[in-house]
Write a structure and sequence with these properties.
Order of helices and strands: HHHHHHHHHEEHHEH
Number of domains: 2
Structural class: mainly alpha
Length: 318
Amino acid sequence: MALLDRYLTAVAFWLPAKEGADVTAELRDDIQSDIEARETTLGRVLTEAELEAILTRLGHPMRVAERYLPQRSLIGPALLPVYRTGLTVLGSVAGVWLLVIAAVAAVEPAWASGDRVAGALNQLVTLALIAFAVLTLVFAMAERWTARAGTAWTAASLSSHPDPRRVSRLGVTFELVFGLAVLVVLADIGPVSASWTLGDKAIIDWTPVIPALYWATVAVMAASVAMSLTNLTRPRWTIQRLGLQMAIDSTTLVVVLLLMPLPALSVTPLAADPDTVARLTTIVNATWVLSLAAIAGVLVLALFESYRRLAPPPRPRR
């Protein structure tokens, strides 16, 4: 009955801890009764294929769990806790962002002069609204996608597909190293402009990033590093951590898209040839945009992979 145990475990994953044990116990009794009745009729023990057929008729574990949860509309009850976790993360990032703006304004009165605080708050509101819209959209799409996947689901997929809850330590290690490297670079650049002098040839200026956008980048990268450390110590996804990861990836995607139009570097020629400097500046800024576009593509794939973990693709019917 290993297949039955895996099925009940998959159902319990989508249920609150307090209800999971009672629901799975009830399901086990019902399924066992069905199995015994079938075996009595046939006069023999059921084969693996016959047990798969019984579980397949019951339906996808997520859809079975939904029968014991309050019903919703746009986002189903199974995905709703993940969505709420994502909103909590977004709210926390926005709160930290406000504290940072207030701290910078208090420490650097010159920065707070003029319309800079208003501009930073405007960026905060814009980013928060976009992140909220993106997160809601992707969860609504995930709800529709999992519903379609559930109609074609078979119990055989529990044994034919690798465990979707397992965390790849190699991938997490790469994410951790990348996140730490980005944080080191951000710490070196700072929220204001940075300049480097190439002898007497030219001056390289890092284009000042809007402080609020800078701190948003720092916040999402710090959250990503914390998630990577958690996954290294506990290499198995839970529904709460999936929600956190999807919120982090969605927010990071919004930040990357907002950074793409900003030129990375400007070079002021001193003794260097101005035409050569202009060409190099164009190449560097084009590389900046392409790198951000590649990161955006990776984030989209990461979001899609999170959806696959929520509802693994069905096994093709024979």
